[in-house]
Write a structure and sequence with these properties.
With about 130 residues, the chain is an all-beta fold. The chain has a domain of about 90 residues. About 0% of the residues lie in helices and about 45% in strands. It contains no helices and nine strands. The chain has a five-stranded mixed β-sheet with strand order 4-3-1-9-8, with no helix packed on it. The chain has a two-stranded antiparallel sheet with strand order 2-5. Strand 6 and strand 7 form a beta hairpin.
Length: about 130
């Protein structure tokens, strides 16, 4: 049965309701600093109902959901899928140099645009280069 709610769609971690009810993740000892994208949460709400607090979440690509990043030269463990010799998909842990991980462009400032479409509130992110 459908329920009345106020659904907000978050375009990214800079959206107003992106981190509502998303806990900070503890440091696991192997990584050095909080992720600059998700600020230590590892994920954010991509959609949240402000009445029932049901939500859909997106995993941070920058820290792979760990909430923490490597700032030195140590390799970072990432989950990956490979094809096993028997022909089926298999999960593995792949180690990647921290310099090879994707970086966010600090020259781009996110802008938030909030609009209401019927009972739904949409918070979307647009970007513009800093002057």
């Amino acid at each position: 049965m459908a329920h009345g709610g106020e659904t907000v769609h978050c375009a990214g971690p800079d959206s107003p309701y992106a981190f509502d009810l998303v806990p900070l993740l503890p440091r696991n000892g192997a990584l050095d600093a909080r992720c600059p994208i998700c600020k230590g949460h590892g994920q954010w709400n991509s959609e949240i109902d402000l009445v029932s607090f049901r939500c859909k979440r997106a995993i941070c690509d920058h820290c792979s959901g760990n909430g923490w990043v490597e700032t030195g030269v140590d390799p970072v463990a990432l989950p990956d899928i490979v094809l096993a010799p028997e022909g089926y998909a298999k999960w593995i842990t792949r180690f990647v140099a921290s310099a090879d991980l994707p970086q966010r462009d600090p020259r781009v400032t996110p802008l938030i645009k909030v609009e209401r479409v019927g009972p739904t509130v949409i918070a979307s992110k647009t970007t513009r280069p800093q002057q």
